[in-house]
Amino acid sequence: MINHSKRLAPLSTGIFNQLLQYKQEQLDLGVDIIDLSIGSPDLKPPTFVTNTLSTSALNTDLYGYAINSTLEFKEAVTHYYNRKFNVTLKGAEVLQLMGSQDGLAHLALAYLDPGDIVIVPDPGYPIYSASVHVAGGKLYHMPLVEEADYLPSLEQIPEEVCKKAKMLIISYPGNPIPAVASEDFFKSLIEFGKKHEILIIHDFAYCELLYDGRRPLSILSIPESRDIAIEFNSLSKSFNIAGSRIGYLVGNANLLSPLAILKSHFDYGVFLPIQIAATKALNEGDQFLEDQRKTYEKRRNTFVESLSNEGWQVKIPAGGMFIWAKIPDGYTSFEFTLKAIENGVVVTPGDAFGTHGEGYIRIALVESDEQLRKAAKRLSSIY
Ligand SMILES: Cc1ncc(COP(=O)(O)O)c(C=O)c1O
């Protein structure tokens, strides 16, 4: 038998397959299921984007290897960053990706030598850790806890770890934690990164989902951040085009270059019609983004209010696409999740994102208000 590489050993086949199987069993038993487990948007992309994509897809000149980003896409990103986050970028400070996952998956390979440490949030989005395993690095988990508003305590990271760490990854609003970072926190993070020469990576995939009048905060808007920080961004959640793969990394060109070199060997770029449609989305999508933000805000309010009416105490998130809810005593996250599926709602157990996620579930706001109301009732019946 030919064995797979040892670096794959820490990668499990994934909780989502297990949930899918259990969901199917319940469906076979006739249970009506509302699936709030996966963060794939149910909302549709803007028509002007799908029209551009379909028209471009008919142009047979656009089927060659793209290799690089078009100039127009880079310009669209620079204008978008300027308009939205008051951040000035040059074209060379934008690296196009086949979705931000592409960059998050490969960055560790571009930066790590065996044994280098990467500091990741716990709970955190799984690719942060998986990419480090594959690259032969080591992980240090920063707990994100409710009492500290889900901001990590940088002072508690041991000096030994700081010395060996090469990168630190965070995400606000994140997945599964829908909290937002304060400007002061970002400032201390930049200071920390500079002091210890640790590359600070901010995953800003949910930058368009901030509620109650809050403004999204790009880490690149923090003074001196360019020396040490880079930021991933994505069109997947903003424009509901998660399947048409495109995203980008922004920051100092020198910091982007290791990943650019690696990618020049690994892939041949994003399909040009997708680049053209994404350019249009970034240039002309502001009204769409505003309307969509209101839709998610309403969903958040509906769901949290419905849960609260049923006696749950759920913290109302400041942003993002998820509700991070503490489960009742007497269950593990996984046990509660199985119970939830039996009651007709698929959620994700918090420990799928790290040990500090135990005691919580993640609920994705990917259904209509009416379905969310129904889901809240079903979850509450488990209490
Ligand atoms: C926090 C976070 N970052 C990055 C991604 C990857 O997004 P994409 O590769 O579609 O840009 C996701 C997708 O769910 C996510 O939740």
From TrEMBL:
Cofactor(s) this protein cannot do without: pyridoxal 5'-phosphate
Keyword flag Protein biosynthesis: no
EC number of the protein: 2.6.1.-
Gene Ontology MF: a single term: pyridoxal phosphate binding
Keyword Transferase tagged: yes
SUPFAM superfamilies: PLP-dependent transferases
The entry's keywords: Aminotransferase, Transferase
Gene3D superfamilies, sorted: Aspartate Aminotransferase, domain 1 (3.90.1150.10), Type I PLP-dependent aspartate aminotransferase-like (Major domain) (3.40.640.10)
Domain Aminotransferase class I/classII large: 32-379
CDD domains: AAT_like
A Pfam family annotated for this UniProt entry: Aminotran_1_2
Enzyme kind, highest EC tier: transferase
Similarity-based family: Belongs to the class-I pyridoxal-phosphate-dependent aminotransferase family.
NCBIfam families named among the record's database cross-references: PRK07681.1
Protein's UniProt name: Aminotransferase
